[in-house]
Design brief:
Elements: H1 2-7, H2 25-37, H3 45-60
Length: 76
């Protein structure tokens, strides 16, 4: 399962909603968490790259006024 997920990571280090889809926040976070649950170390190169993708995309996301979200993937 881990190998399958790693093999379908996009060139931009994210994952899409399906294996041929462009990277999305939802797809990337789901695969990141899935790999962590499967026992992959958070310091694995592909997970570091995915975390960077998530942080980069999170900065570009516009949230409604009054709402704040904290992205803390360092502990996952």
């Amino acid at each position: 399962m881990k190998l399958y997920l790693f093999n379908h990571q996009n060139k931009d280090d994210g994952w899409g909603m399906h294996i041929e889809g462009e990277s999305t926040m939802f797809g990337t976070v789901m695969q990141y968490v899935s790999l962590r649950i499967l026992g992959v170390d958070k310091n694995h190169e592909q997970l570091i790259n995915a975390r960077t993708w998530i942080k980069t995309m999170a900065v570009q996301t516009v949230f409604p006024p009054g709402e704040s979200f904290i992205f803390n993937f360092e502990s996952i």
